[in-house]
Design a protein that fits this description.
Length: 839
């Protein structure tokens, strides 16, 4: 049998990426009917031509038509149903534990699947079955059937290579614990060979577990209370605060087999590595080769505790009478697989694609509208990925029971957002990792990324010329009044969410020593946002020339189509961010009409106004901190001056996380408590990149001047700056006129309007005739003591069998959740609330 175009194929090199997990344009996988067609020319995968499914888009034929690539390997996995019964005897809890893996390896599938291979030539409309055996995780030909050697070599190279997703998982799961500045240099130890050190008990209390050894002086103190009931009174932390000895070793984690232990640096507030640890321990009489001599109690490591916590932070999947909640299937009821602490991504994706504006924008759209959908890597094309997600979630094609499980109740297998997760990870490495991230932070990042992509000059993304993210935006109007002369000014700000202050009034302490808070109303929180309040810092008034307090009253100048409300649940306790589970009373309908500004600024007497300047957010030369974020930081326990300095250094960001991250990164700065020095900026002066980002680049070997230019030219995105630096190795770091206010920087310029232009457009188009009523559409919930651990799910209001109901999306599990238990979960753990404007 002859095959055409064999001269245009070759085996992939070691460094080439192989996409053999799912279709580039949909979620067809090898274990679904028809399998997957892997292109032998470009190593991408596409759904097959004819599987008897009318909803199939025949993406292999599309790829062939666009590129001329005609040779494909059809790879199909068929589950052995007889394995279900043999697997059903496995203890369910044992199966859960097996999921908590720190290491990702290729799974042996030969006992669970049968494998079928076919070589396809779309140009000749021909195919041939391949005689391939799969043994010991290696594919080999049993017979060649006269195939050309180039085909044999290419097929085997593809089958025996690691898939792109597996490489991503291995890379993301490998947590490299590094040394810090306190552990990389020699540690000066005190009290060595001291026989009075008691390794079995805290020096300040009677605890004999969760014990930490100070590597500087041998002090034994108990740690902080940890998940799973491990007690602690923070005496090791107190010892650090008193002595400034930063490094402590958890005695219960010492491992002879792996010659390691949990090492924590209190100064860096992170888990670290200590070189020559066994030598340091020996100075305090601990021989890691004979740990049994000390009868040190073995405990779970920090990593094991974190994984166990993420597994056990589950939401109620049973009704009031103890029955499993009813699984749901069908259109717009598709679950998402958890790829390893990816529940924060899944929850945000579910609530966004539940919105009509997202569905209209991406569902069933033609991939051919994207100019670069053919060339380059489609896995790194944002619009391709978003269309793929919309089709996968909304169509219902993949919302079917997972029959390949022994469980009596069949939930969904779910679709996996591997390529999407990899894509967002190219812009923000935190979202590529397997560590839990903040869902709200991811939401803001994704909205900004979509908008930046929309405004790219050379992409014909939207024929209707509508910016999708405009649905979330609104203008707030702040009236700043000098408390001395009573003159005032108005400042307009454009934002896409409201941050809600939460009053954490303690109700009682439970028997399990858990804090129980009083209920708090979301309406009361909204009233607090729009109340007249005094700023927490004194400013210079250019009218009365006195340093005094200013009052600030916030109103809405326009209203959004989609209202995002973020609950301020994070507080500081012993300088550690914790989350408070205050039950929130949520109204089904919110009316924002009373918060809309009624002032016509053009009719205000100019004599009543303060002198104006070109700054947005300044009174005279003074910096006006964002009052909502300022109050949030103060409520966490940060000193006032540090809060102001943090907001000044993050450009008055409306996201509290930005300021909080800056504070934690600069805790050791000796000048952190010095007064803020306000530098007045000229119109053409460029925004300076953060010192932390510059340092990150200089630590990689780049010159400071060139690193600064790279960040400015790439909109302060450090990942894109690195790419630019490698692409411009000879650059001298001198900014031309465009970077300082005019000219041409030779980069693609965004067509995005300025902030001032956007505000003016929103105010001009605002109509009070539109409804000011919003109904609650979805809620993202989080269970856990920290937003960086625990578990995220979302509840979405849907019509199920003619009745409005709450649907719980818990990763791949999609269930009906109208019972009292889950309604209480929404109150106690609601973190983000999505309200949609009534039409």
């Amino acid at each position: 049998m002859k095959f055409s175009n064999t001269n245009s194929i070759s085996p992939p090199s070691v460094n080439q990426t192989i996409y053999k997990d799912d279709c580039t344009y949909c979620f067809q996988t090898p274990d679904l009917k028809g399998g997957l067609n892997i292109c032998l020319h470009c190593y991408r995968s596409f759904c097959p031509l004819d599987i008897g499914d009318e909803s199939n888009s025949n993406h292999a034929a599309l790829h062939n038509a666009l590129t001329g690539h005609n040779l494909f390997l059809n790879y199909t996995e068929v589950f052995k149903r007889d394995q279900i019964e043999s697997n059903s005897s496995i203890n369910k809890e044992e199966k859960i534990i097996k999921m908590a893996k720190l290491e990702i390896k290729e799974k042996k599938k030969t006992d669970l699947f049968n494998f079928y291979y076919n070589l396809l030539d779309l140009e000749n409309q021909s195919s041939i079955a391949l005689d391939i055996i799969f043994k010991n995780d290696v594919h080999s030909f049993n017979s060649f059937n006269g195939l050309p050697q180039i085909l044999i070599d290419t097929v085997l190279a593809i089958l025996n290579s690691k898939s792109s997703y597996l490489n991503q998982e291995v890379e993301s799961w490998e947590q490299e614990i590094k040394t810090c500045k306190h552990s990389s240099s020699e540690i000066e130890q005190l009290n060595i060979n001291n026989p009075s050190i008691n390794l079995k008990k805290c020096a300040y209390c009677d605890l004999n577990e969760n014990l930490w050894l100070c590597l500087y002086c041998g002090f034994i103190g108990c740690g902080r209370q940890q998940f799973g009931g491990l007690k602690g009174n923070s005496h090791a932390l107190n010892h650090f605060n008193e002595t400034n000895h930063p490094i402590a070793i958890k005695l219960g984690s010492l491992s002879l087999k792996e010659n390691k232990a949990d090492c924590y640096c209190y100064s860096c507030n992170d888990e670290i590595k200590v070189p020559d640890l066994s030598t340091y321990l020996l100075n305090y009489g601990i021989n890691i080769q004979s740990l049994d001599d000390f009868n040190i109690k073995k405990e779970k490591t920090l990593t094991e505790l974190n994984i166990e916590q993420n597994i056990k932070w589950s939401f109620n999947m049973t009704s009031n009478d103890g029955q499993l909640l009813r699984p749901l299937f069908g259109e717009s009821l598709t679950g998402l697989k958890n790829l390893g602490n990816s529940c924060y991504i899944s929850s945000i994706i579910q609530v966004l694609f539940d919105l009509k504006c997202f569905q209209d924008y991406f569902y069933q759209k033609d991939f051919l509208n994207v100019k670069d959908a053919i060339n380059g890597d489609q896995g790194l094309n944002l619009r391709v990925q978003l269309i793929k997600i919309a089709n996968g979630l909304i169509s219902g094609k993949y919302s079917t029971p997972n029959l390949d499980t022994p469980d009596d109740i069949k939930f969904q297998r779910g679709i996996a957002l591997n390529s999407f997760k990899n894509l967002v990870g190219t812009h923000n490495k935190d979202f590529k990792s397997m560590q839990q991230q903040d869902a709200f932070e991811f939401l803001l990042f994704l909205l900004e990324t979509i908008e930046n992509y929309y405004y790219s000059d050379d992409l014909d993304l939207n024929p209707t010329n509508e910016n999708l993210i405009d649905n979330f935006k609104f203008v707030s109007e702040s009236k700043l009044t000098c408390s001395n002369c009573r003159k005032y000014k108005f400042i307009n700000e454009l934002t896409n969410y409201l941050s809600l202050p939460i009053k954490d009034e303690l109700k009682e302490i439970s028997k399990e020593n858990k804090k129980i808070y009083k209920d708090y109303s979301l309406i009361e929180s909204l009233n607090q946002v729009f109340s007249n309040k005094s700023l927490d810092v004194e400013l210079n008034c250019e009218n009365c020339l006195k340093t005094t307090f200013f009052n600030k009253e916030v109103k809405l100048k326009t209203l959004p189509n989609v209202l995002v409300l973020s609950a301020q649940r994070v507080k500081l306790e012993n300088w550690v961010p914790i989350k408070v589970d205050v039950p929130l009373i949520l109204p089904e309908v919110v009316n924002l009409g009373s918060y809309v500004s009624k002032i016509d600024v053009s009719k205000v007497d100019p004599n009543d106004l303060l002198p104006t300047n070109d700054g947005e957010g300044d009174v005279g030369d003074e910096f006006i901190p964002n009052v909502e974020v300022m109050n949030a930081l103060l409520s966490m326990g940060f000193p006032e001056n540090r809060c102001v300095k943090a907001l000044y250094n993050v450009d008055n960001s409306g996201n509290p996380d930005d300021a909080m991250n800056w504070l934690f990164a600069n805790m050791d700065d000796p000048s952190i408590d010095e007064p803020v020095v306000i530098k007045k900026k000229s119109k053409n002066q460029v925004k300076e990149p953060s010192s932390g980002d510059v340092s990150s680049l200089t630590n990689m070997g780049f010159e400071k001047k060139v690193a600064r230019k790279a960040l400015i030219l790439n909109e302060y995105n450090i990942e894109r700056a690195v790419d630019w630096l490698f692409s411009n190795p000879e650059d001298d770091g001198v900014l031309d006129e465009v970077c300082d206010g005019g000219g041409n920087n030779k980069l693609k310029k965004s067509t995005k309007p300025s902030m001032k232009e956007e505000i003016e457009a929103f105010v001009k188009e605002f109509s009070e005739e539109k409804s000011s009523e919003y109904y609650l559409k979805s809620v993202v919930c989080h269970k856990g003591t920290s937003i960086y651990t625990g578990h995220y799910v979302c509840f979405v209001r849907r019509e199920i069998e003619g009745r409005e109901s709450w649907v719980l999306f818990n990763d791949e599990k999609v269930v009906l959740a109208n019972d009292e238990n889950n309604l209480r979960e929404i109150m106690n753990n609601g973190y983000l609330f999505i309200y949609v404007r009534r039409e």
